[in-house]
Structures are given as structure tokens and as C-alpha cells.
UniProtKB/TrEMBL annotation:
Belongs to the NusA family. This is Transcription termination/antitermination protein NusA. The lineage of its organism: Bacteria, Pseudomonadati, Bacteroidota, Cytophagia, Cytophagales. The gene is nusA. PROSITE patterns: KH_TYPE_1, S1. It is found in: Cytoplasm. Keywords: Cytoplasm, RNA-binding, Transcription, Transcription antitermination, Transcription regulation, Transcription termination. InterPro entries: KH_dom-like_a/b, KH_NusA_2nd, KH_sf_prok-type, NA-bd_OB-fold, NusA_N_sf, S1_domain, TF_NusA, TF_NusA_bacterial. Residues 139-204 form the S1 motif domain.
Length: 414
């Protein structure tokens, strides 16, 4: 293979991979200089000129002529007078000899290795370009097409044919994909595995929800509204705390949009995830009350030492505060950074009621915890429900519930 064929084939391959001309020339020169070092020990006294467009390669070796008896005669950049005069009889000591080195001088094996090295260098460069491209896009939304659905992940391809990975744990539980579907997600991270970049996407990250708001709400994109914090139970519920430094802008109203037009687009993308948008405030009492929306808080006490908040609500608000599956209270706790305990507020006619904690000697702790999860914290609040209601709202068996009723009723009969 001559230099022209080698360079032209490499240049065509490099262009197909969108490698720019300066990078292409640099790779060619690096590979040829590596060949020179392998054959001549050093490339310091070599000029390498490449014209990739024409497929031209010129390699010149220059050495200083020294006396045949000189101590420097063995230096890589020196040549004896007698050797120099074999090239040109008129040469004299002190002059420089320029010799053109042909690619064939390196041997067929070396040229074949150079060709393989050039292709590998482009492939490595392509991986670096892909890694850097997506590393810069971490936290940004991308769209890609589903091309293979596996048990642990969904494989997608971008517009340039690069493979992206959406792991099962980064999918919304209600997500159902088919081959050819267009999927939106954020670039979660970029890993290197055996020299190959792995682009990991996510649809469960709070950042994904934040980017969706930026796309749908111009005031968020322009920075007029700030998203302070987002907490999510993907596919179920999310709470978004927002604030605006412009008194003329209602941050909640702007995010929700006219008749919910803006937030509906976000909800649809998240498989009907229920999204609560609340006004952020540094007033912790007010912030907690807003975080527990749609429940209305009657009163609360804050213990900064233990990072716990006791919230008191009217009986009909307790289940709203806890929410389906306990998501509302879990997300509210994460949003404000305190553990929230919900208590049923007693009115003047309920003073003789007894807290469930008083029955810890007769009822197992895990059973009491199961009742408290549903907002039941007093004996009468439990007795106000039927056995069927309790079976439906808890994971307790009917036999256990009937025994609870017996113990609680016995307390009031006494």
C-alpha cells in the first residue's frame, strides 16, 4: 500500500466520522512519527508534511555531516562524511544532509500496522467526542427513539445513531414503551466502560421535572420564577416549591397556567403524576402548611433539635394530609427537611378519647403503626370505622381488626 492510498482511505473514513481536517492531519502525523521513532529511535530530526486532500506524504530526514573519526558520529542527527558523500560527492563537514524517506522504507508490516492504528485512533476519537458531547448535556433533556426493550433497560438511539440507555430504575413505573417510540428523558450521567461511553438517561430524577417546567413555563426558563426544590415519587406525586422576586408575578399561577394548560403538559409526560406547586417561604410554619396541601392544618409545633414537626388537623383532614399510599406526608417531609407527625385534633366533645399509644401493652407496636399510617391515632377514630373500612385501608386481617375493636371498646365500657 503506497502513501497516497493509505492517506486517502484514512481521510475518507475520518470524514465519514465527522472528524475535522486539523484533527485528521494531527492524527496522521502522530502515527507516522511513531513509525519513525520505532525505526530510527527518534523523530527529532525528521520533517513530516501531509496533504490529506491530495493524499501526499513527504518525510525528510536531516543530519549534520561530521568527520568519520568524530565522537558524535553515532548520534541520531549526525552522519559521517564518507556516508554523506555516497549520497552526494560534493558534501563537506558541517553541512546538512536531507534524505527523503519513502513509506515503503518502513516495510509492509509497519505500513499495515499504521493503517490499523489510524482507524483505531479515529474510533477512540469518536468515543471521546461522544463522551464529551453528552458529559456537557448532563441534566438536559434529550429525545431518542426506542430500538430495543430489555428486562433491565430500554435501549434508545439518538439522531446520530448513538446508543443511549434508560435503566429500569430510571423509568417511571407506569412507562410502557414500544419499538419506534420517541422518548424524552434527561442525561443522568455518562460512564466509561472498557473505554466505551455509556450514556445513562433518567425520567425519575427531579431534574427531569424541573426541565419540563422550563420548557412549558417561560417565566421559569427566563429566571423570573425560581424552582427552589422538587421532591418526587415518580408516577405518583410530586411537590414543587417555587418563588418569584417580582411581586407582579404569581409563581404558582404562572406554573399552572390558564385552566391548568401548562402543568397538564408536564403531567401527561410524567404518566399523570399528581403535581402540587406551592409558594416557597422562609416562614417554616407557613411552608409546612403549604407543603401538606390539600390538607388544611389547624396548628403545629416544631422541634428544631429533633427535626420533627407535630401537625394537628381536623379529623376530615387527616387522610388528605397523609394522602394515597402515604405519599403526601412523605413528600411534604422531604420538601421541608423535617419529619412530620400527623395528629387528629380533638374537639371539646372528644376529651374522653384515648390515644392509641396508651394500648401498647395490649396491642402490638406494628399494628398500632399500621393504624397510625392511615391517620388513626385515637381509640374513637378507630371505632368510628367499620371492620370493612379498616380492612380496605390497612394491611390488617379481619380477625386482628375484630380483636382491636374488642380491646378498645373494653376501655370505654370500664
Amino acid at each position: 500500500m503506497d502513501a497516497k492510498v493509505l492517506i486517502e482511505s484514512f481521510a475518507e473514513f475520518a470524514r465519514s466520522k465527522n472528524v475535522d481536517r486539523p484533527t485528521m492531519i494531527r492524527i496522521l502525523e502522530d502515527v507516522f512519527r511513531a513509525m519513525i521513532r520505532k525505526k530510527f529511535e527518534s523523530d527529532e530530526n525528521f520533517d513530516v508534511t501531509i496533504n490529506a486532500d491530495q493524499g501526499d506524504l513527504e518525510i525528510f530526514r536531516y543530519r549534520e555531516i561530521v568527520d568519520d573519526n568524530s565522537e558524535d558520529i553515532w548520534d541520531f542527527d549526525k552522519i559521517s562524511l564518507s556516508e554523506a558523500q555516497k549520497i552526494e560527492p560534493d558534501f563537506e563537514i558541517g553541512e546538512e544532509v536531507y534524505e527523503k524517506i519513502e513509506l515503503e522504507d518502513f516495510g509492509r508490516r509497519a505500513v499495515q500496522m499504521a493503517r490499523q492504528t489510524l482507524i483505531q485512533r479515529i474510533k477512540d476519537l469518536e468515543k471521546d467526542i461522544l463522551y464529551n458531547k453528552y458529559e456537557e448535556q448532563v441534566g438536559e433533556i434529550v429525545s431518542a427513539e426506542v430500538y430495543q426493550i430489555l428486562s433491565r433497560e430500554v435501549l434508545l438511539i439518538d439522531q446520530e445513531g448513538n446508543e443511549l440507555i434508560l435503566p429500569k430504575g430510571e423509568q417511571i413505573p407506569k412507562d410502557r414503551f414500544r419499538k419506534g417510540d420517541s422518548v424524552k428523558a434527561i442525561v443522568h450521567r455518562v460512564d466509561m466502560s472498557n473505554g466505551t461511553p455509556k450514556i445513562i438517561l433518567s425520567r425519575t430524577s427531579p431534574v427531569f421535572l424541573e426541565r419540563l417546567f422550563e420548557n412549558e413555563v417561560p417565566e421559569v426558563y427566563d429566571g423570573l420564577i425560581t424552582i427552589v426544590k422538587i421532591v418526587r415519587e415518580p408516577g405518583e406525586r410530586a411537590k414543587v416549591a417555587v418563588e418569584s422576586y417580582d411581586d407582579r408575578i404569581d409563581p404558582v399561577g404562572a406554573c399552572v397556567g390558564m385552566k391548568g394548560s401548562r402543568i397538564h403538559a408536564v403531567v401527561r409526560e410524567l404518566q399523570n403524576e399528581n403535581i402540587d406547586v406551592i409558594n416557597y417561604t422562609e416562614n417554616l410554619d407557613l411552608y409546612v402548611s403549604r407543603a401538606l396541601s390539600p390538607a388544611k392544618v389547624s396548628s403545629l409545633t416544631i422541634d428544631h433539635d429533633t427535626k420533627r414537626i407535630s401537625v394537628f388537623l381536623k379529623p376530615d383532614q387527616v387522610s388528605l394530609a397523609i394522602g394515597k399510599g402515604g405519599y403526601n406526608i412523605k413528600l411534604a417531609s422531604r420538601l421541608v427537611g423535617f419529619e412530620i407527625d400527623v395528629f387528629r385534633e380533638l374537639n371539646e366533645h372528644e376529651e374522653e378519647d384515648v390515644l392509641l399509644s396508651e394500648f401498647s401493652d395490649e396491642i402490638d407496636a406494628w399494628i398500632l403503626d399500621e393504624l397510625k399510617k392511615t391517620g388513626l391515632d385515637t381509640a374513637k377514630s378507630v371505632l368510628s370505622l367499620s371492620a370493612e373500612d379498616l380492612t380496605r385501608r390497612t394491611e390488617l386481617e379481619e380477625e386482628t381488626i375484630l380483636e382491636i375493636f374488642r380491646i378498645l371498646k373494653q376501655e370505654f365500657e370500664q
